[in-house]
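DATA SHEET
Item: assembly model
Revision: 1
Owner: S.N.
Input lines:
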Amino acid sequence: MTRKRNPARLVLALSVAAVLAVFLLYTSIAGGTTPSLRPSQLPGHDGRVSLAGRVVGTASGDSHSAAGLRFRLRDVEGTASVPVLYRGSKPDLFRVGRDVVVDGRLRRGVFVAVPNTLVTKCPSKYAPSKG
Amino acid sequence: MAELGRAALVTTLGLVLYAALAGAWAARTRRRRLAVSAQNALLASLGTTAVASGVLLSALLRHDFRFSYVAAHSSRELPDAYTVSAFWGGQEGSLLLWLLILGGFGSAAVLLQRRAGRDLLAWVVPVLGGVGTFFAFMLVVVASPFGTQVAPLDGSGLNPSLQNPYMLAHPPLLYLGYVGLTIPFAFGMGALLSRRTDERWIVATRRWTLLAWTALGVGQLLGAHWAYVEVGWGGYYAWDPVENAALMPWLAATAFLHSVMIQEKRGMLKVWNMLLVILAFCLSIFGTFLTRSGVIQSIHSFTQSSIGPWFLAFLCVVVAFSVGLVLVRLPLLRSRTRLESLVSREATFLYNNLLLVALCLTILWGVIFPILSQAVRGEASTVGRPYYDFFLRSFGLPLLLLMGIGPLIAWRKASLRAVGRTFLWPAGAALVAGAVLVGLGAGSSRPGLIAYTFSVFVLASIALEFARGTAARRALGRETWLGAFFALVARNRRRYGGYVVHAAVVLLALGVAGSSAYGSVRDPQKLRPGESLTVGPYTLDYLGFRQQRVVNAVELRADVDVRRGDRVIGRLHPGKNRYLAEQQTSNEMAIRTDWLRGEDLDLIADQMNPDGTIFLKALVKPLVNLIWAAGIVFLLGSVIALWPDGREQRRLAARYEARGAFTEA
């Protein structure tokens, strides 16, 4: 018996092609990925990055004022740190000693954050969703 | 006491290891008594795991801080309910809960599904034993919950922001879902190992898959509701890796639940179903690896520990074993029939599956992108919300449309003319709704408009199905409309339960589309008492704030009058709680739900200054409450589909007896 053409194969092939096409479309139009770095990796990057670290030293200023909130971020496991200037809303859990993630750019030695991008990590004592 | 717990776990490890090894040997050499013995070992392991869990639970409730785990995850003043939740509050307890649920599900499945056939079950036991062995090994060797120390005066407690009722239900439900996916996996592998590759394993595990899938879905919606109501940022889903870790297995299981119907009805897609069940199980293990290993940054940070590599190794073993097995048994997985037409029920199921898997894999790609880019370019990059939103729209909207098309198309081969006739009403309703929506100004967001229109289409096609079925039943006998309706659903629980779930998904789509595409946001703005802010149709007059001392906190509450036009329609009190002992602040968002317009107004006091000024953030979220309503409808539909059906059982039993006699003759 000769093998009949199987429409399922056609569907599979077409859909794989469609998914690839959508992917290409996405990367060509939107395409943005943000590097996520630790303070020690920051030198040499002048584009927008997402910076993760621990708040150290003192946090001074008002995040809603023009002068902004100033604090230092240090590698969670390490010593390299960078001063951060942040404006916008400040999460409740923000505090010295917390681990935070914030987007922004390095400008003349200061990490200038994009407003309203500061997020604190959930406290690590509890596993809210699973094991 | 700790020794008892440890001993119980070591015994469990012995039992599940025996179930795995003796069970495999028995199944291979067809020794019936040995197989029974392996099965009994599996059942007994549930008992010993329960003893270990009892020890941990009693230690928690007695505040026995000699247990390191108890000291690290609870404290004396913690209310009892949250002390219980500390059981799964840490890693070791989570693993124990996992093993306990696995034991419970495994035992129940093995006992209840005898009809699946002795030869199949003989292989299910060792597979379950193998999975259990991994978790028991972790608990005995790597992460014991029964470590002891010199008891401190008090434990270090549980974070206040997580002491809330959602956290009692959300994590265990997700566990039920994750662990529940082991059952169809074990039966699938059992079917391959025993060469019983007909649809028996699927019929046997249908309800288990449905149960796990329901728990996973409801668990996620509870998490989303918690995020919306308690966390106070005005959102409910952030595409965070940990959230995605729960979404991916759910999507894979959704695809599986649909594609098994094609195998049951038409004997096709056998390989595909095996791959889906493997994918769903592996994603649930992968999720654990992801959250525990700390390889990916997440806003949920978990206790990072040494168990990550173990999970990765286990995952590799599972993938290698299961995919290898599928390849070896490939000749047995030939389809009895093939797809006859691209316009048929089977075909729409196939499209639905491809879309679901595509969505699942693109999310997976986004989740592991940081690891991949780290490996390739030496620098971790993340994909953000736009990436996920884009793919949710690209794959989610066609899925929504298919949900309306699928149920109306005939099996095997549908004529285009018949399809046209069936779709006249739903398509007409959708077009009219679309035109009305454009008239109302919904055209401001194209994805939103498409989602709304498709939703109307799906709802109309579901309503049509119910109406037709009821009318047909009524024509048969002297039933009332209502009687005919209930009889219809009761006699076809799976089908109509499925339609109810579809309706829930539509509600979810409406809620997500409404709140994301048509919402308005005002970023925090400084207000002095007497000043106002407008958001959407609302004007907000800030009057001032006051503070009040309660038992463990200082509550700051602002008074904000909400106006629409000139009329004051209510007063809201967004604020903050300052917990004194913990030195923490939490946002207390104020929500005003307008049921008539179907929207929420959310106020967040971003900052409250001593001089009486505040920074107020305001969001209008249309239709967001449909998301929570969807959860209730989803549960209802799942319960209808899950409800035991004696008639169906008898029909299946008769079918297998007939076929069993045929194959053995």
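QC remark: The beta strands of chain A are 33-37, 49-62, 68-74, 81-86, 99-107, 110-113, 119-120.
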